[in-house]
Amino acid sequence: MNTKIAFLVFAFVVFLSAHVADAQTGKLPRIGYISLRSGIEPREEQFQRGLRELGYNEGQNILIEWRFAANKEDRLPEFAAEMVRLEVDVIVAAGTQAIRAAKQETTTIPIVIGQVGDPVQLGFVASLAKPGGNITGTTTTPVDLPGKRLEMLKEAIPGISRVAFLQDSRNPGNTITLRETEAAARTLGVQLQNLDVQRPDDLDNAFQTALNWGAQAVIESATGIFASNQDRDRIAKIEVKTRLPVMHSDPALVLAGGLMSYSTDVPEQFRRAATYVDKILKGAKPADMPVEQPTKYELVVNLKTAEQIGMKIPQSVLNRADKVIK
Questions:
Q1: Residue 218 and which of 22, 40, 155, 177 are 20 to 30 A apart at CA?
Q2: Tell me, what's the pLDDT at 150?
Q3: Under 8 Å CB-to-CB from 272, ≥6 apart: which residues?
Q4: At the topology level of CATH, where does 7-141+266-288 sit?
């Protein structure tokens, strides 16, 4: 009898231990996070903050599989395939290339957009109100934002008539951005020069080409290639060296020494993306969850850089700035 009791106790302990281990690992909700960039940045920090606000603590009641491509786009499909193998509950895709890689890999695992221009024109969702597939989330670049950047640049530099447009042609989102910028340029009477920049090493030639053409300013829309602080420092130094004022698409480049940026509050959009993850984990279907559009825009101006390139920012622009670096 004692032997039987001992065996039953042993069997129960083994059974309980197995289920506790299962609860601690396999049963925890698992998020796959895919990005073209190099590591945790303010947007990822805000995503984590959003999860904490909803009661999720990484490693305790949720797991996150972080994957960063360090600007090596060919790694994104590999990451997407890995998320499918891991059977994650939801994939958060940061950026157009990451979304495209995830979309090509799965039509069943929910995909939450962390950063993208117009997901309808890019073919990711059927409509903002009714996505209709396994993709939803937050759009960070409304259609009219490229035109607003050019308007803001012209206000900061009255009288400019030639502007170079730096973009990475590999990013399908930039096709839309270029088209909208060209439309705004026609309205504002500005000539636009399109320059393809696919890696930081292309920057010197691109800026020299812009100078040779007679560009008076630059609009940068190639944020994806600036995956590291070193890359951001590089374009900031070229900006100062050539004395060409640049309107950036990411405030991180202004913090690194660029002149100015006008953009949506991208980290806030990633915090909002956490609410989509929460709803999906609780049973909501991406097809029925409207894509959220941004409501806040930020103008960031670096007066140190303005002084270095010999430019005076009009007070009207400074009055509108959300952040001024002195």
A1: 40
A2: 94
A3: 50, 138, 292
A4: Rossmann fold (3.40.50)
